[in-house]
Design a protein that fits this description.
The chain is mostly helical. It has four helices and two strands. The mean pLDDT is about 75.
């Protein structure tokens, strides 16, 4: 998967800078968000649901459809769409969008 991501990024950079920035956004954004203490602590928080409004605002500002924080067990701890909180995605293959 990582090699495919790297190859897609390489091809995008050769073809069009706009396409390249699109791929970079979705590759770098999750890594940047996980550095925020307010996001990083959600799975271990006593009430992670309190983060839902923060994630909703974040998704809106970044023009994203949704932002999810999934704990190590695969359960959605918080989401910009509160309907998904508590759902377990541990057995669902999640494709990463570059």
């Amino acid at each position: 998967m990582q090699q495919a991501d790297e190859r897609a990024t390489d091809l995008a950079q050769r073809w069009d800078p706009a396409v390249s920035s699109f791929f970079s956004r979705y590759t770098l954004l999750p890594r940047a968000l996980e550095l925020l203490p307010s996001v990083r602590n959600i799975p271990t928080s006593a009430s992670p649901e309190s983060a839902n409004s923060f994630l909703s605002t974040l998704a809106s500002r970044l023009e994203l459809d949704a932002v999810y924080v999934i704990g190590p067990s695969g359960t959605t701890a918080a989401s910009s769409n509160e309907n998904f909180v508590g759902e377990n995605t541990g057995s669902v293959p999640i494709s990463r969008t570059p």
